[in-house]
Design a protein that fits this description.
162 residues; alpha+beta; globular; disordered N terminus
Length: 162
């Protein structure tokens, strides 16, 4: 009897292990970087934006976390998604992107021709992509938005997860 119980228990554990490994189960969702809490206040201040202007948007269930801040020179948005860089490149075409390094981290800059007052750089992360967008303020329309992004990114990008 004792041997029969052990055989049934072992069979149950084996069945549970097989069910747990079933390919029909959805993949575990990746935890997204939360820009509103993940970017430190001092980094925002060094970047020249006011932490008090924070606007949170997006939802992990929709696949995005977003936060934005305003400064005198520009408006800063940071997006976090589980989508991959390859997915973005497939949608826009790889020629729409160029390598762009900010704070020692290489990302992919979206071509600036469509929006001459903004700069958009995507950084790969374990969770997917962290996207940083800078839009120059009306007073700074003549300034290079990618130079503004690079300046802001010196303090912001090091806060992004790998």
């Amino acid at each position: 009897m004792k041997r029969a119980l052990m055989t049934v228990a072992a069979g149950g554990l084996a069945l549970a292990a097989l069910v747990g490994c079933s390919s029909d189960e959805p993949a575990e969702a990746k935890v997204l970087f939360e820009p509103c809490t993940g970017v430190a206040v001092d980094a925002l201040q060094k970047a020249g934006v006011d932490p008090a202007t924070k606007i949170a948007a997006g939802a992990p269930s929709a696949g995005w976390q977003t936060c934005e801040w305003t400064g005198a020179a520009a408006h800063l948005k940071v997006f976090s998604t589980s989508r991959t860089l390859a997915e973005f490149e497939k949608e826009s075409g790889t020629t729409a992107f160029t390598d762009y390094t900010v704070a020692g981290r290489t990302g992919r800059r979206l071509a600036a021709a469509a929006a001459p007052t903004s700069c958009d750089v995507l950084f790969s992360a374990d969770q997917g992509v962290i996207r940083m967008v800078v839009v120059n303020s009306l007073a700074q329309q003549a300034a290079d938005p990618c130079a503004t992004l690079r300046h802001m990114g010196e303090s912001i990008v090091p806060t992004f997860p790998a």
